[in-house]
Design goal:
The structure is a homodimer of 223-residue chains. The first copy, chain A, has helices spanning 10-22, 33-42, 59-68, 84-92, 105-119, 156-167, 175-183, 193-205, and strands at 2-6, 26-30, 47-51, 75-79, 97-100, 130-133, 136-139, 144-147, 150-152, 172-174, 212-215, 219-222. By secondary structure, chain A is of the alpha/beta class. Chain A folds into 2 domains: 2-119, Rossmann fold; 130-222, Orthogonal Bundle (Arc Repressor Mutant, subunit A), CATH 1.10.10. The first copy, chain A, has a 5-stranded parallel sheet, with helices on both faces. Chain A has a 4-stranded antiparallel sheet with strand order 6-7-8-9, with helices on one face. A 3-stranded antiparallel sheet of chain A has the order 10-12-11. In chain A, helix 6 packs across helix 7 (175-183) and helix 6 (156-167) packs across helix 8. Chains A and B meet through helix 2 and helix 7 of A and helix 1, helix 5 and helix 6 of B. The first copy, chain A, binds a DNA duplex (30 and 30 nucleotides) through helix 1 and helix 8.
Chain lengths: 223, 223
DNA sequence: ATTGGCTATGAATATCCTGTTGATCGAAGA
DNA sequence: TCTTCGATCAACAGGATATTCATAGCCAAT
């Protein structure tokens, strides 16, 4: 998942960024609204976390301009102000969710994933965010992978990788595509991280490892 | 699949080109509209990706001229402009689809394949993107060929070859045409790679191998 | 601060497979 | 029959993938 964080206070920004990275997410940081808008012009993010109090143009204005550009990226607003007025006006300007500071980090993460899930139109039936294939179950809400009922510990990147693989069952995915989704890098295709991680996953999946097939000259396929 | 990308910004062009290549597609790049039109005059593409903002003649004009030449190649328009007006006028000028920047790469790929599928008359029923003929099924999303229900391993070039053959069922394809589509080379016809690969494919298709008929002096025909 | 454990990443290696060529053999048409 | 075009084969070089290792960074606990 790719996240853009627009926050001027460096300490706070750093704190948030680290927490999100620990989730295996890729975080880009902008110190003010203009910079943020510039970045959004070229690249697409899954979620934008936007501080309300910014030097220069305010968070509200950023949000407004974003929507004026017909950009529908989910926006999570952060603010130190506790008044409900702010909240209401924020939502009216196109924010999708709102979190008052100080906040619980787990809550931020939960809400951000919720935003993302909503935006990507996950199945909203009973199997909320569960991906299954044979004895393999990945619960994206709990972020737990189960192999034949046994929980397998995964690192953040490994989780993201298995998630995207299982989500696109029976579809060949190019390395580039995986790199984009999991690592968020749009350049430097001369790395073999993907291969390394595929290897690790295969090992951890045990007998199901062979479900990840390599499509020579193309990438990998799950299923 | 052969794609012509008309985009002036080198960074963007490079980014797009890499991603498309990773999908196994052959990409030709033109830095401006005139160059693009020149290239189209000589060669045939499956899809044209066209930036709206170009130095010299605009993307809209390119599209218009293209259609004036009775060229029906599907056109995918890209633009940084936010207003919907642009979209409408773009489509009116003959573009087949439209994607506002910034876009999600997966979406670009999905849309481009959709365009291609529509143009080549792939099965538009539930078997989205599957080519079938008797016991032979090629799933272009999974990149898997099935012979009577049995998966057959193919190399990258073999996959492309069977795809183009099956997509142009009952049509004779010249070696040059195949060379152009699969190998992306439009010169040097004094190689027999095509013959070699046809041979390999025939072998792998087993009983269906004879579906690939050779049209003496012309090329090959599937069906 | 320092330490230890863990993750992420890049590099190096080894292995396997594909792509390509040129030669030779066979088949079809004049 | 002769000629031309296509089929097939073997072999090589380069490319792609798997796997392992070493390093760097991060976090938590001391």
């Amino acid at each position: 998942m790719n996240i853009l964080l627009i926050e001027d206070e460096l300490r706070v920004a750093d704190f948030i960024r680290r927490g999100l990275k620990a989730e295996g997410w890729v975080v880009e940081h902008a110190g003010d609204g203009e910079t943020g808008l510039d970045i959004i012009r070229d690249r697409k993010f899954d979620v934008i976390i936007l501080d309300l109090m910014l030097p220069g143009i305010s968070g509200q204005q950023v949000c407004q301009k974003l929507r004026a550009r017909l950009n529908k990226t989910p926006v999570m607003m952060l603010t130190a102000l506790d008044s409900t007025d702010e909240r209401v006006s924020g939502l009216r300007l196109g924010a999708d969710d709102y979190l008052p500071k100080p906040f619980d980090f787990d809550e931020l993460i939960a809400r951000v994933s919720a935003l993302h899930r909503r935006a990507t139109g996950y199945a909203s039936n009973g199997d909320e965010g569960k991906l299954q294939h044979q004895g393999l179950v990945y619960d994206s809400a709990a972020m737990v992978l189960t192999v034949d009922g046994v929980v397998v510990e995964l690192s953040a990147k490994e989780r993201e990788l298995i998630a995207i693989l299982m989500a696109s069952k029976n579809k060949a995915l190019s390395r580039e595509r995986i790199l984009n989704s999991v690592w968020g890098t749009h350049e430097d295709p001369m790395t073999n991280v993907v291969d390394v991680y595929i290897g690790r996953l295969r090992k951890k999946l045990g007998p199901y490892g062979q479900l990840i097939a390599t499509v020579r000259g193309a990438g990998y396929r799950f299923g």
